[in-house]
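Proteins fold reproducibly. Take a sample protein:
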Amino acid sequence: MRRTQLYLEEDIWKMLKVKARLNGTTVSDLVRAAVREKYLVGGPERKDAMLAALGVWRDRKDLPDTQTYLRRLRKGGRLKRVLR
C-alpha cells in the first residue's frame, strides 16, 4: 500500500466523515473503496461481459476467415505505406 495526500472540499470532507462514522470505518477506507469502484473496473462484472462478447463474430458470413484476411493485408502495400 502507498500513502498519498488529498485535498478535499469542506463539504466532501464532512460528508465522508459522517459516512465513515455511521459505517464504523475510516475516511481512507471510503476513499479507497470509491476509487476501486470507479477506476478498477473488473471483478465478476468484467468477466461476465467478456464471456458474453466471446465469439460474437463467429457466425458472420460476410467476413473472410482470419488466415485469408491476414494474407490479404500482408500482400497489399498498406504495410509499406505505414512504415514510410
